[in-house]
Write a structure and sequence with these properties.
homodimer; alpha+beta; Glutaredoxin; Glutathione S-transferase Yfyf (Class Pi), Chain A, domain 2; 4-stranded mixed β-sheet; Glutathione_S-Trfase (chains A, B)
């Protein structure tokens, strides 16, 4: 637990899946922190100074030391605060969790968003990305053996996959690209319902409606600019 | 040190920077292992079974348990064998090492190779990737404060950056794309010389000439097919 001597700050925006990952981990461990809302249209000096390479949120600042990249932040939180572990203790099981989290980012989320935003590209690029994301989802589906990826409790991979549980369905409803469905991925779909129903996750996932409006406006403007 | 009871196997190919990372870490820690040469043109059942998601090398197999993704493997090796640590002990310094290793892969190496192989794409795509890689190299240059990223000894980030020390200059000489030079990045350039001169690295980096011929043939065939 953070003591009074410690300064724990999260620079983020409401509505970012990567910021949400950090919020879930902090809440699971009972760490109190200050949330500094960033204006991505007019980035703060604090953000630019803390994460000059990517200039992106989340940035986690602990006692004036900034850390960027959501999965790197999760590892830091796990190593700094031992309570309610989100990673298994065995080096092999840790490697497995790191491997799947990387699959989620590189092979599921990135190609999914490339496919959605590929309205300017040719159909081949779009299909290639859909295929890549879909295949990786199949592997992730077969990796799910318990209630959660972490077993009976949510862990590192579940937290990483919040983007699949909440953001992917949202963007699907906007774009019409139906990739992650109950029919195609029944186990993952059930997992997503269980996960979003977890009291901590439920509290931290942003309200759907304003986010829907926000993403829809962005998507519509992209589509209309490509016509 | 691996005992007789342990089976330590690395599935790889000579000439892969990602396989070389794992070899350097194993050598630094004095771990004996069996190297299984993979035929990437005709992938083995062992590879396909061990890494069905990516079907790529390296795969590290320890007591029948396979681990993929070079940075994930490095973390596993570090956690399994404590001698000659490649990561600092402080959670913050660990996070810093993980952050820069990810920058190397995502912001330097990936866009560099996209720029090199973008002979079919338009000039804009090529320039965007060169710019991305070049900017990240500048940040990495300013991060280098000692002889090595690991301090006086080579560590996680140095090992991750073997691809910048050896493969990037090789591919530059083939493609003519001069991105990483002594003029532009004097500190990084000196680091690369020191690093390649380290006895363990020197022994494990593949012979340049056959690799040059191999990559050049691949590059020439790409260029001619795009004409």
């Amino acid at each position: 637990m953070a003591t009074n001597q410690e300064e724990v700050t999260l620079i983020g925006v409401v509505g970012s899946p990567f910021v949400c990952r950090v919020q879930i981990a902090l809440k699971l461990k009972g760490i109190e922190y200050k949330f500094v809302e960033e204006d991505l249209a007019n980035k703060s000096d604090l953000l630019l100074k803390s994460n000059p390479v990517h200039k992106k949120v989340p940035v986690f600042v602990h006692n004036d030391k900034p850390i960027s990249e959501s999965l790197v932040i999760l590892e830091y939180i796990e190593e700094t605060w031992n309570q309610n572990p989100i990673l298994p203790s065995s080096p092999y099981q840790k490697a497995v969790a790191r491997f799947w989290s990387k699959v989620i980012d590189d092979k599921i989320v990135a190609p999914f968003f490339r496919a959605v935003y590929a309205v300017n590209d040719d159909e081949k690029v779009r299909e290639k990305n859909i295929e890549e994301s879909s295949q990786a989802l199949e592997f992730l589906e077969s990796e799910l053996k318990d209630k959660f990826f972490g077993g009976e409790e949510i862990g590192f991979v579940d937290i990483a996959a919040v983007v699949i549980a909440f953001w992917v369905p949202l963007v699907q409803d906007i774009s019409g690209l139906q990739l992650f469905t109950a029919q195609k991925f029944p186990k993952l779909y059930n997992w997503s319902k269980e996960f979003l129903n977890h009291p901590i996750v439920k509290e931290l996932v942003p309200p759907r409606e304003p986010l829907f409006v926000y993403f829809k406006a962005k998507y519509d403007s992209l589509v209309s600019s490509s016509k």
